[in-house]
Here is the input.
Amino acid sequence: MILLYMSEVSDVMNTEIVELNEQNIDIEKLMRAAKIIVNLGTVVLPTETVYGLGANALSSTAVKKIFLAKGRPSDNPLIVHVCSVDMMEDLLSEPLDLRAKKLIEAFWPGPLTLVFKRSDKVPVEVCANLDTVAIRMPDHPIALKLIELANVPIAAPSANVSGKPSPTMAEHVIQDMNGRVDMIISADRSRIGVESTVLDISSPKAVVLRPGGVTLEQLQEVLGNDGVMLDNMINGVVDKPRSPGMKYKHYAPNAPLQIVRGNKENILSYIKDKIEKASSAELIGVLCSDETQSEYQGAHVISIGSAHRLDQGASNLFAVLREFDQIGVDMIFAEAFAEDEMGLALMNRLKKAAGFNIVDV
Ligand code: AMP
Ligand code: MG
Here is the structure.
């Protein structure tokens, strides 16, 4: 049975907001956060990917509070965050093999989540009844220190209301989670700005279930070109999702979003035509790159940065989507970007935000 923990939580909790500087962490303040985790409460924490909504990963009671705060469907499993390799030993059903060791050596701490066969110590809520568990070690001094102080692994999905863009800035988290969690740690903007890459290594074939902060090209360097493949879902070839989270609506701005794909001239003329034909009461949003920003007149135009720096573009995307909500545009047209390196993760999030509404021009 799929329980829908929908957003019935009225904003009733008394949320403590604590500011921390990652260069100079106030350990006393962080101890308060660790105590909340130990006492089975919820803490929003900064990571290098996006802000996470954390709770003690070993406790069903604690983990259920995450689903409630986000309005997240119960069949969408969570990523468990650890601060050491030793900490995950209890969570796994078998010792790490050579492939896992290589990946950990190359990418941890960092934005790579690994899916392993799990032990029965993992609460069913964390893994949504699957026989696997997803684990990563975040590359962020506050996140790592918090896990160390709490001395338990922390389950943490992105700290947004389910379906909304992931939070990359403290103000996004406060918009979404104030009144829904025990504590929010407010720190700098997330450095990577998109979620981790999820790589399933629970079977002989390593499969990317979600592109993210570690690119396919980087994984191929470690595993070889034939040692890793992309799940079909990533290309929008809808099949049975291997990762339950893949089937849900994600990252959606309030206004409908359409991706426009093709050569540059055709993209420009398609979007310009849409702006021209819009009624005077309609505000069109355009999501584009620095290189084309000046081409569009009569619309609210936001660039994600240079088309040649899609790592920065990926890092800006969620904030840009939230900005369109704030402006209150009626329709958004987004230029399609190249789908290699970090462009793969960027386009994956953009396609989901658009509900796969893509026009080829
Ligand atoms: P979020 O933390 O909200 O960014 O989502 C976590 C992602 O990890 C979702 O796409 C989940 O479906 C995926 N995930 C978590 N645990 C597993 C697992 N055991 N097997 C496959 N995917 C998982
Ligand atoms: Mg999420």
